[in-house]
Amino acid sequence: MTELWPTADLDPVRRLRILAAGVPGARVVERELDAPFERVWAVMADLEGGFGEFQTDMSRVTVTGRDGDRVAALARSRFGFRARLHGVLRPGWCWLQSRFLILGMAATPTPAGGTLVALTGGLRVPGRAAIIPLGTRRELTRAADRLSTLV
Predict the structure, then answer these.
(1) Residues 6+ apart with CB under 8 A from 15
(2) Which residue from 91, 101, 105, 121 lies 20 to 30 Å from 14 (Cα-Cα)?
């Protein structure tokens, strides 16, 4: 009976679009980069290094624990705010959240040898899956621009 059910394989960028669509106020910025997936994801997934170079709202991120693809981190913003983030980090996919913050990143190779990346995130409404949308798209666009320059 189960062989009659339709199936769909979603790449990480499509998955991020779907997840963000369920979060009120979430914005997704996508960019196709002319760099191979391995190089792009190496920067994006380096939470303690490259991540802070393109996501400049974070002045420092310290990974405090890993268990397979589960990760815990302590982030400090450039304004001095701190957040204990928990979530998943695997090739092409990162979703981290704290009580007041959501960060989502995805990347997938393109047929031309480049990489499609998607970013979402922002200040979280406590107790709800919602993001305060003020300035989110502008900051995500700036982060995508910086990432493009880095790779």
Answers:
(1) 93, 106
(2) 101
